[in-house]
Design a protein that fits this description.
By secondary structure, the chain is mainly beta. Helices cover 10% and strands 55% of the residues. The chain contains 3 helices and 17 strands. The strands form 3 sheets. Strands 3, 4, 5, 6, 7, 10, 11, 12, 13, 14, 15, 16 and 17 form a 13-stranded antiparallel sheet that branches. A two-stranded antiparallel sheet has the order 1-2. A hairpin with a 7-residue loop joins strand 12 and strand 13. The longest helix has 16 residues.
């Protein structure tokens, strides 16, 4: 009964903060951070990874094609998915406490049409240049190549700490690199959160949520001294969501990515 209550609370905050309603088991972008029977922490690449670069127990690097989203602010049906390169590593493995980082990097010039949305060819070919530059070749209505020189790269890192069966969030740095001064990041924000059963004998549910407005800062870092929560499937959330608004000409776009440890 308690787990059901915790899950309802997490779903409420997920909807409120824009995280979506995925549980950790369904979050196929983030690496699996697992404890073995001795309490040691190991990293595992999710089964839905599209490309694997590094696969070790303490360090992984891979790509998930549909890891972030890009959508037109004035027309919500114009939606695209953006690949995410995930790098995660254990940076300090002590006897009782393990510290690690997980970094998401997204290149907007690799965005692809979101096939779950209804977008016709005209809409697709008329909106992509607003972010990615001019069309350089079109063999057919369904096969279009674009100038890849206009791009924005976003990245966000979370530092997580695991102790026994508990986890907490301590630091979230991030930012972007703009390769084309015609595409501007006009505003951005990061929401950090740790939600779940308290990692202490007192019990109860703990929610720690903060949103920081970042304006158009190219580089930023947020320190968080969040308390531990218990690692329980379906009733624990530890992560950060990075949102940004971009403008190119008369078009405005929204980018969002969620970096989640649990």
């Amino acid at each position: 009964m308690k787990n059901i209550k915790f899950m309802i609370i997490i779903l409420f905050f997920s909807a409120l903060l824009g995280y979506g309603v995925r549980t950790k088991a369904e979050n196929t972008v983030a690496p699996d951070i697992k404890l073995d029977k001795d309490g040691d922490v190991h990293l595992f690449i999710p089964k839905d990874a599209d490309k694997v670069f590094t696969n070790e127990s303490d360090k992984v690097k891979y790509e998930v094609k549909k890891g972030a989203t890009l959508s037109a602010e004035t027309n919500k049906t114009e939606a695209f998915t953006v690949p995410v390169v995930v790098e995660s590593e254990i940076t300090n493995a002590g006897e009782e406490v393990t510290e690690g980082t997980t970094t998401y990097t997204s290149e907007l010039n690799q965005a692809e049409q979101d096939t779950s949305q209804s977008i016709d060819n005209f809409s697709l070919t008329s909106t992509l240049p607003n972010i990615f530059g001019k069309k350089v070749s079109a063999a057919s209505q369904n096969r279009v190549m674009w100038d890849r020189t206009a791009a924005v790269r976003f990245h966000v890192t979370i530092t997580w700490v695991v102790s026994g069966g508990n986890v907490r969030l301590t630091r979230v740095p991030g930012g972007y690199t703009n390769y084309d001064n015609r595409t501007l990041v006009t505003r951005s924000s990061v929401t950090t959160a740790t939600l779940g059963p308290r990692g202490a004998a007192t019990g109860g549910f703990l929610n720690q949520v903060n949103t920081v407005n970042l304006a158009s800062n190219r580089s930023w870092a947020v320190n968080r001294n969040y308390s531990y929560v218990k690692i329980l499937s379906g009733s624990t959330y530890v992560g950060a969501t990075y949102n940004a608004t971009l403008r190119r000409g008369n078009s405005t776009w929204n980018f969002s990515t969620t970096n989640r440890a649990y």
